[in-house]
Amino acid sequence: MKFNNKNVYVSPKAIIGKNVKIGDNTTIYDNVVIGDNSIICNDCVIGEPTGQYYKDMDNYENPTTTIGENAMVRSHCIIYAGSVFGANLITGHRVTIREKAVIGRNCLISTLVDIQGNCSIGDYSRIYSNVHIGELTKIGNYVMIFPYSIFTNDPQPPSNQLIGSEIGDYSIITIHCCVLPGVKVGKHCLIGANSVLSRDIEDFSFAMGSPAKKLKDIRTIPSKIVEGAMHYPWPFNFERGMPWEGQDYNEWLNHNIKE
Amino acid sequence: MKFNNKNVYVSPKAIIGKNVKIGDNTTIYDNVVIGDNSIICNDCVIGEPTGQYYKDMDNYENPTTTIGENAMVRSHCIIYAGSVFGANLITGHRVTIREKAVIGRNCLISTLVDIQGNCSIGDYSRIYSNVHIGELTKIGNYVMIFPYSIFTNDPQPPSNQLIGSEIGDYSIITIHCCVLPGVKVGKHCLIGANSVLSRDIEDFSFAMGSPAKKLKDIRTIPSKIVEGAMHYPWPFNFERGMPWEGQDYNEWLNHNIKE
Amino acid sequence: MKFNNKNVYVSPKAIIGKNVKIGDNTTIYDNVVIGDNSIICNDCVIGEPTGQYYKDMDNYENPTTTIGENAMVRSHCIIYAGSVFGANLITGHRVTIREKAVIGRNCLISTLVDIQGNCSIGDYSRIYSNVHIGELTKIGNYVMIFPYSIFTNDPQPPSNQLIGSEIGDYSIITIHCCVLPGVKVGKHCLIGANSVLSRDIEDFSFAMGSPAKKLKDIRTIPSKIVEGAMHYPWPFNFERGMPWEGQDYNEWLNHNIKE
User: What interface predicted TM-score (ipTM) does this complex get?
Assistant: First the structure.
């Protein structure tokens, strides 16, 4: 049904891998590199030129945009030139990602996510619907950000002194949270709905409120699923799509020691 | 001005009713059924294939998508295959609706609404701009959801035990609310702005806060419009677009007795 | 790379200024007027017909839409007929603006902003990503609205008595705020993240919370950048893109006295 090569434009300066599918009405600009076996659905714009293009079209050179192999980019996404995506990217629809974003392997970026660029997201992280990520934000590995949470960067608006926030590995920011500029959330944290994060949160904290405060250690939160068990740290209890899928998380850790 | 049949694709396996208009740049895939006198505006995708399509394109059969008569689908909407919409649907722009959503008659689904599929909305309900509805949510009849409210379904993220929330008939969720997994809101409730719903709310409650608590019975809330009158239950004071328009709500109820 | 005149439609009844660029897949309907040196990027719809069009296509006359000179409208925007934009407009992607909006000079309207029409925004105001502006809202000059803040207009939903809110010159509404119907925010105010504005806020207030209350005078807030200095009123400390850029704000005021 799809992929009828209707109203498609692919720049001769783009490098398209083997067995890549490109949807109807999609445009791929100069210096885009797409890995093998990727699917770029319909109505996408990949390698959207940066603001510099409009100032001097004749001499503009589009920065390289790299999308790793096995990507699945759903329809109506706009990805600016100058961003890099690891293998196995999955997106929803209508994602907007500005220039100089560095996104790791096996990430999910859902419908309507708005990434302002000049930021980083680690491997295996999941950014759910309608999350807004300001410039300079650093999101770790295995992080989950739930819908309508936003990351800001101007500590005293308006100013020219932008500071990003940092989210540690395995942490979960649930829905409708505001992460204020410069805030550091540790590893294995869980932030409750509708929180305003204005202070740093230490590792293993369950925090919520406005301003968000630590309420307890996540390792004391009983499972709602297995009676008498604990649910967090979640990698011991959830594996779908994670690199430890099909094996024990401890076992996986033993073979993948990182600092 | 519109409907110039430019860059339109309609599958030969789609069934298009009488007097249907289809906008430019719109795609209608296999097994879509559109009722008489409907308008599908420009740049829409109707019957978007599900994830299964990408796994086996050759043998994929698109699920049936049914849009009732007199629909008005504004531009840039994406409606997945396998959803059902009653008559007189009205949408805003850029709506995204995943598979297996069941939407009743006379519903309004405004601009940027994101419905994750596998959920239900009753008749005459209005989902305003930028509402996010997670899988398994059940929204009743004559319900109004105001902008940026979201319905979640994972009680202990991340887990595989999704539970939807339920919103009773005639209830109103105002702006920026978070409805947590499994929460049941009764009938004729009113939920104040920016609330987090983590517990069930009984019929006729005005509730708000984080967590949202009942503050009073809605039948005690004075009208801001008619001095000395009460405003809720609202069907006694508002009829625009409702089936009791032009008659007294009590009279209409008498002729439309439901349990 | 862009502007290849591919799948473009410009109504013969549109008036396009000198040196205007129009992107691929863009549609410009009847009675749109675009000022000189403007750029309308790809996949836009300018002069989208109002609801009246669908009721009587044969006799429908599209209201005039005016976009001032030097506009930069990024891709995938939908601008309804009957709105007016001053010179030097900049938009992000996927902006939706309904009819009868009156937007001043030098405004920024970022990605995913949803303006419901029949409202006004003054000069040099900046509406950041994913802000929702209901009908009848009045936003002053040099105002900044940060992401996911929303302006409502129904004081007792559902009703037919809409009342807009008003935001005074130089005021800043930060992220995730709810501005309730009829609320007036004075000049030079600063509203903290995730606030619900249900009462009027006087000039020079720093307010936050739910309901938002004045916590202090903004003129007592120390700068985070220059030790010992005050940061607000911000025009003394921020000039990028403002008409006083390159000169002292006081000096500029002396030459631009307004009531």
Answer: 0.96
